[in-house]
Specification:
This protein has 107 residues and is mainly alpha-helical. The chain is built from 3 helices and no strands. The longest helix is centred in the first third of the chain and has 38 residues.
Length: 107
């Protein structure tokens, strides 16, 4: 009786270990694929105020050292991305409305 219990226990332990190892391997494979895919989507948007030629020359003449740009970022959540997209759409809409009102006033 005791021998049967030991064999059943050992078999269950081996089977549980094999199943756990398999589940971890599958999870790791899917997680690695998502990380590689998300790393290829990076994009950068740089915006600045438009300067006249005189402003550009004055800016360049005032600089004695090499300019250094520090860029830092963090991964955004889905909610943050949606909020940013809405803000950009709102901003584009405002620019379009201003342009349309300028045409209406000029025309």
């Amino acid at each position: 009786m005791k021998n049967t219990f030991n064999n059943t226990f050992k078999s269950g332990l081996i089977l549980s270990t094999a199943l756990l190892t398999g589940a971890l391997a599958i999870t790791a494979a899917f997680t690695q694929g998502k990380a590689e895919a998300s790393m290829n989507i990076a994009s950068v948007t740089i915006s600045a105020k438009r300067m006249t030629e005189e402003q550009k020359l004055a800016f360049d003449a005032a600089q004695d050292v090499t300019q250094t740009v520090l860029i830092s970022a963090k991964r955004m959540t889905a909610d943050e991305k949606m909020a940013m997209d809405r803000a950009e759409q709102f901003e584009r809409q405002q620019v379009a409305e201003k342009a349309a009102s300028r045409k209406h006033v000029q025309g």
